[in-house]
Every structure is written in structure tokens, then in C-alpha cells.
TrEMBL record:
Xref: PANTHER family: DIGUANYLATE CYCLASE DGCM-RELATED, REGULATORY COMPONENTS OF SENSORY TRANSDUCTION SYSTEM
Enzyme Commission number(s): 2.7.7.65
Annotated protein name in UniProt: diguanylate cyclase
GGDEF domain mapped to chain residues: 165-293
Residues making up the signal peptide according to the UniProt record: none
Record-annotated PAS domain positions: 7-77
Catalytic activity of the protein: 2 GTP = 3',3'-c-di-GMP + 2 diphosphate
Cofactor(s) listed: Mg(2+)
Gene3D superfamilies: 3.30.70.270, PAS domain
Organism of origin: Bisbaumannia pacifica
């Protein structure tokens, strides 16, 4: 079927009905046209926007940069394939994320304008951030997951290999955790895992990494920490967990830990194997104990 070109006078109607926000700003950055989708998205009436500077809908911290970008775009200095993600502010103060694409337009009087097409990507962005977080974190405790933890450990080992920096690790296993689930239920078990993770995270330094290896087993990575200090740090965690009431009144929790100091040339696998062996010894000696290789 042959294509029929729409008559020119349909163009305003198309812009009016477009499901994406479209606005035209003049050389000074003031709105000259906003379509209904644009107004709906930001929560302003058309008359509230016309004549206003476009930075009305931009967070304060971004205003200077975007004003300069607008100027450069109008003057043909900037990349004319302008496609950017921004955070914006709606009239009610809500923050949203948009994908903005722009084109340069010269009107009948020879004045240059910027046409911006706006798509709301707030939900996709939030979903993407959530997926990225879940790829490297444990959903229950929010700690690094095993995969991310292993990659962090390998990174620290590479650093140690290159710069000769110290590195210690500890594998921590909660004692008789099965009993907690059996006596108090799985939901309380989950709560205890979360509280334990949060407590340990609080107690450790920001430069240390805390990883949930799985179940009730955790890995602590202590970069720049020598043998005695590593044992001290883990002993502090052991005491803290022993003394802090968790989950439900009367619920007692302890941990056992195997601490190992990395030796030059040692792989992460061998290092963890040593830590695991000494953890096993701590369990065999009656639990609630941190031992070092
Ligand atoms: N609530 C809860 N329980 C979990 C989770 N992951 C693992 N567990 C439980 O943790 C328990 C671990 O049991 P075991 O490996 O026998 O170890 P334990 O009872 O802690 O005994 P020891 O390690 O020998 O001191 C099991 O009952 C698992 O079901 C979790 O995400 N939530």
C-alpha cells in the first residue's frame, strides 16, 4: 500500500498526542512549547511552564552544568546527538529519572531552538539498580554474596602480591544454628541472621569486607591486618555476638571462627582451606571460639 504523507497541519496534533514528553526551549533555555505528556509527567499546567527556565525541573546541583550544556547545544558546539539520563524534580517534589534526547531546530525566523524528548525511566532504573545489587549481594542480609566476596578476596590477594600488603581472613560459622530454627522457627532464624550480619558489619572497619558465604557461614576479609590484630578483631566479634540478645528473649547465639593470615604466593582457595580447617578445630573444641592457624 502506498504511503500517504500527512498534511503539515497535522504535525501540532501529533506532538500534542505524543505519549512521550516533548518541549521546545529557546536560546535562553526558556520553555516555548510543552506537550500534554510533558506537563503530565512533571505535574505542571502548560501555563506554569511556558516562559520558565527549563532548570525549574532540574535538581539544583545540576542546574549550572545543564544550563551550559544547553547553551553549547544551541550554539552548535556540543554533540548534536544529545542523549542523557537525568534526575529531575516534579512539581510535587518527587524525584524521577528521565532519558532525554534532543534535536536542534531552526525556526522560520532563523532562531535556533532545542527540542527535547523525554521518556520516564524511573522504574527501569530502580529495577536495574536492584538487579545489579542482587547480583553481588545476599538478599536476606544485604551482605556481599559468595561470588562478590570471592572476587573481592582475589582482588585483595592481587594487591598483596603486588604491594606486599598484609591480608587476613576469617571464616565464621554460627553455632548450633539448626537448633534456633528448630526451636524458634525459620522466620526467627532469618531475623537472627540479619541481626548478626548487621552487628558484625557495624563492628568491622569500612575497609573490611563481610561476606555471607551461604547459610550461617560468613567470611571476613581484613586487608592490611596482621595475624594478632586479625584474631583480636574476630575475638571482638565473638564476644559481641555472645553478649548481644538477638531475635527473641532468651535466645543465645555464639559463633566459631577460623582465622588465617595470607602468605605471599598463596591462592584464595588454599587460604580459605586453612581458615576452614582451623574453624573445624574450634567447633571440635566445643564452639564459641576463635582460633588462628
Ligand atoms: N533461618 C534460616 N536458616 C538457615 C538459612 N540458611 C541455612 N540455614 C540453616 O542453618 C542450619 C545449619 O545447620 P548445620 O550446618 O547443621 O550447623 P549448626 O546447626 O549451626 O551446627 P554447627 O555449625 O555444627 O555448630 C540448617 O538448619 C539450615 O537450614 C537461612 O537463610 N535462614
Amino acid at each position: 500500500m502506498p504511503l500517504t504523507l500527512l498534511p503539515q497541519d497535522n504535525l501540532p496534533r501529533i506532538i500534542h498526542a505524543a505519549p512521550i514528553g516533548i518541549c521546545i526551549t529557546n536560546a535562553e533555555g526558556r520553555f516555548e512549547m510543552v506537550n500534554p505528556a510533558y506537563c503530565d509527567f512533571y505535574g505542571y499546567a502548560e501555563q506554569e511552564l511556558l516562559g520558565q527556565h527549563f532548570t525549574l525541573v532540574v535538581p539544583e546541583a545540576e542546574r549550572a552544568r545543564l544550563t551550559e550544556q544547553h547553551r553549547a547545544f544551541i550554539h552548535g558546539e556540543a554533540d548534536q546527538e544529545c542523549r542523557e539520563e537525568h534526575e529531575v524534580r516534579c512539581k510535587n517534589g518527587e524525584r524521577r529519572t528521565i532519558l532525554a534526547e534532543a534535536s536542534r531546530l531552526v525556526d522560520a525566523q532563523g532562531e535556533v531552538k532545542k527540542v527535547t524528548y523525554v521518556v520516564d525511566i524511573t522504574r527501569q532504573n530502580a529495577l536495574q539498580r536492584r538487579l545489579a545489587f542482587l547480583a553481588s549481594h545476599d538478599e536476606l542480609t544485604g551482605l556481599l554474596n559468595r561470588r562478590a566476596g570471592m572476587s573481592r578476596l582475589d582482588e585483595e590477594i592481587r594487591r598483596g602480591q603486588r604491594y606486599g600488603t598484609l591480608l587476613s581472613v576469617a571464616i565464621i560459622d554460627l553455632d548450633h544454628f539448626k537448633r534456633i530454627n528448630d526451636r524458634h522457627g525459620h522466620a526467627v532464624g532469618d531475623e537472627v541472621l540479619c541481626e548478626t550480619a548487621a552487628l558484625m558489619r557495624q563492628e568491622l572497619r569500612a575497609s573490611d569486607a563481610l561476606v555471607r558465604l551461604g547459610g550461617e557461614e560468613f567470611l571476613v576479609i581484613l586487608p592490611g591486618v596482621d595475624r594478632p590484630r586479625a584474631l583480636e578483631a574476630i575475638e571482638r566479634l565473638r564476644r559481641l555476638i555472645e553478649l548481644t540478645p538477638m531475635g527473641q528473649p532468651g535466645l543465645a547465639l555464639t559463633l566459631s571462627a577460623g582465622v588465617a593470615n595470607w602468605q605471599a604466593g598463596e591462592s584464595s582457595h588454599l587460604l580459605l582451606e586453612r581458615a576452614d580447617k582451623v574453624l573445624y578445630r574450634a567447633k571440635a573444641r566445643g564452639r564459641n571460639l576463635a582460633l588462628m592457624t
